[in-house]
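DM from R.C. (forwarded with permission)

"hey, sorry to bug you on a friday — could you get me a structure for this? deadline for the figure draft is monday and I only need the backbone to look sensible"
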Amino acid sequence: MLNKVLKTLEYDKIRAQLAERAQCCTGRELAAELLPSFEKEAVTSALALTAEAETIFIRTGRSPAEDFPDMRPCLKRIHAAYYLTPTELLGVA
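My reply, with the result:
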């Protein structure tokens, strides 16, 4: 049933447009996998995060995720070697 509704609404196209507008690679991946939520708490939380991001955008004129670096390579290094180089630390800051 849900798949039929999503197909009728062309949800895959909506997701693709959202992913295209994402500011970072993590956001693009999350957008590409996004599914509707039916739990009230999850919807309320997502709406609150959206409102917060909108407020930041209106106040600053920039996305709160703009120029946000992909942290996954650094996290893998930390997990494997338990340290980062000074350059990597500056990139995280």
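R.C.: lifesaver. The chain has a mean pLDDT of 84.
me: no worries. The radius of gyration is 17 Å.
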